[in-house]
Design a protein that fits this description.
The protein is α+β, with helices and mostly antiparallel strands. It has 2 domains: about 70 residues, no CATH class; about 35 residues, no CATH class. It is built from 5 helices and 4 strands; from the N terminus they run ββαββαααα. The chain has a 4-stranded antiparallel beta sheet, covered by helices on one side. It is globular and about 45 Å long.
Length: about 150
């Protein structure tokens, strides 16, 4: 990949709302580009579609919120119509999402280490990532000194 090419391009993205909603679209004709090393923030009022856009990029939209127009290019690959199997390959390797509310994103009955293992085992060739060298140091850098406690 050329260093000048964008990492992410969202082009004229529209995402529908279910019939009977207060409006037809969650987002309409949204476009933005994220370059290598660039930080882009989506800013808007509550209900303006920021999370819906992020879920669309990740391929996590519920069936009731279909992408009706536009494209999403991840490192030049159009993932708008990608099959679930391809999206699963991309998650945690080329794209990831930090959810707004950690209390709903993390499972309180699993250790942090087990949750990291689960993500890596699901989306990478690793089968027991916490046993691999380098996993524990990354956990401690994130202020989780005992990820398996």
């Amino acid at each position: 990949m050329n260093a000048d090419n964008p990492i992410l391009q969202v082009e004229d993205l529209s995402i529908a709302l279910p019939a009977g909603s207060d409006r037809a679209s969650a987002v309409r004709k949204v476009s933005f580009t994220v370059g290598r090393g660039e930080i882009v923030c989506l800013v808007g009022e509550s209900g303006s579609g920021k999370s819906v856009i992020a879920q669309g990029v990740m391929g996590l939209l519920p069936k009731q919120l279909p992408i009706t127009a536009g494209r999403i290019l991840l490192q030049g690959e159009d993932i708008t119509q990608a099959p679930l199997s391809r999206l699963r390959e991309l998650r945690a390797t080329r794209m990831s999402m930090i959810f707004q509310e950690p209390m709903t994103a993390l499972n309180p009955v699993m250790t942090c280490g087990d949750q990291i293992d689960e993500v890596l085992a699901e989306h990478t060739p690793c089968r027991r990532p916490s046993a691999a060298p380098g996993c524990a140091p990354s956990s401690t850098r994130c202020c989780c000194p005992t990820p398996n406690a």
